[in-house]
């Protein structure tokens, strides 16, 4: 037996009860007790992999397709087993056809199941601090436990901003700008992500007459950025690269979809991952993630589905997705949908179950 058997095309969510306990992960794929070994590997040339729980009650996604490059954990390889990403079945589509479309309330928010919601940020929620227009989008009062999101628009007299004790990822969707982080200037074009470490300050200036707007995700969740009289002379030179633009050469495929990590562990982020992705006209099969996520629709239209409801999405809308919430994002546009996501804890956006 030269290659492992594909036991399942989704990982197994397992709660490991006791720190230090050894678990034997099946590598051959033949076990009837997935994801654990039952001895079926005898004579195959495969041996189980031993993993010891790192803490009491540790939640892990153990790979069941046996194609992972990070055993015993899922790394999203199951998404590439077929030519197309797993879509909702005809039976699921028929069964959900009558689910209501939740309209937005007076604040632009459509609340779905489990605390998931779609919001259209409006100017009515904006206030001005330190020469910036700031619009809160996701906060603790909305049910977020691990991240918060703000839309930031600098004026001509904008001061530097900072957040103590949290990481920040910024995203410039349109226009061009100089983004200054701790005195280091980065020239950026559209659909570019930036990483700001705890305690560092940042500033943004448009390079044209067109105003710019930044999405700012803070993790761990906390208050909005605060203005500074002067830019602090703090920049972690161990991580000089703080900017990543969308680059087709750096795309990672998931069957007929792609994503590109803009800010992640390679840039030094310990808490949050930021990515950009594109999906064709389709409706994904319902699934879950072990992370809390903020998704901004950049182009395309469609629906966000949960168990008992759905909400329309369009460019500019933001989706808040709680950890483990069952959901499905549908694209109804012929040209596809592009989105930007940021989630906690940091990892791969390809991992789902």
Automatic annotation (TrEMBL):
GO terms for molecular function: 2 iron, 2 sulfur cluster binding; metal ion binding. The keyword Oxidoreductase does not apply. Keywords: 2Fe-2S, Iron, Iron-sulfur, Metal-binding. GO terms for cellular component: cytoplasm. Pfam families: Cupin_2 (PF07883), zf-CDGSH (PF09360). Residues 9-47, 48-84 form the Iron-binding zinc finger CDGSH type domain. This is Iron-binding zinc finger CDGSH type domain-containing protein. It comes from Iodidimonas gelatinilytica.
């Amino acid at each position: 037996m030269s290659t492992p058997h594909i036991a399942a095309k989704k990982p197994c969510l397992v709660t490991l009860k006791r720190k230090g306990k050894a678990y034997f992960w099946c590598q051959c794929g033949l076990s009837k007790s997935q994801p654990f070994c039952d001895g079926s590997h005898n004579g195959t040339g495969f041996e189980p992999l031993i993993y010891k729980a790192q803490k009491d009650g540790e939640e892990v996604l153990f790979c069941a397709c046996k194609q992972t490059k990070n055993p015993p954990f899922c790394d999203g390889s199951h998404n590439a087993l077929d030519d197309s990403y797993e879509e909702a079945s005809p039976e699921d589509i028929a069964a959900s056809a009558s689910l209501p479309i939740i309209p937005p309330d007076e604040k632009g928010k459509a609340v779905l199941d489990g605390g998931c919601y779609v919001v259209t940020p409006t100017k009515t929620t904006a206030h001005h601090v330190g020469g910036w227009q700031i619009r809160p989008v996701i906060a603790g009062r909305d049910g977020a436990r691990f991240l918060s999101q703000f839309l930031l628009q600098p004026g001509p007299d904008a001061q530097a901003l900072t957040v103590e004790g949290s990481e920040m990822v910024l995203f410039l969707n349109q226009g061009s700008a100089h983004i200054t982080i701790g005195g280091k200037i980065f020239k950026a074009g559209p659909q570019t992500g930036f990483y700001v470490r705890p305690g560092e300050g940042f500033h943004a200036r448009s390079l044209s007459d067109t105003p710019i707007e930044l999405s700012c995700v803070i993790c761990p969740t906390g208050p909005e950025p605060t203005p500074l009289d002067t830019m602090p002379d703090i920049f972690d030179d161990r991580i000089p690269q703080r900017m990543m633009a969308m680059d087709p050469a750096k795309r990672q495929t998931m069957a007929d979809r792609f994503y590109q990590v803009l800010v992640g562990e390679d840039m030094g982020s310990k808490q949050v991952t930021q990515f950009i992705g594109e999906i064709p006209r389709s409706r994904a099969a319902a699934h879950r993630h072990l992370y809390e996520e903020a998704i901004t629709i950049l182009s395309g239209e469609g629906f966000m589905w949960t168990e008992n409801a759905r909400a329309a999405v369009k460019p500019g809308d933001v989706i808040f997705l709680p950890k483990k919430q069952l959901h499905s994002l549908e694209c109804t546009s012929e040209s596809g949908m592009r989105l930007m996501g940021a989630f906690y804890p940091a990892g791969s956006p390809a991992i789902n179950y």
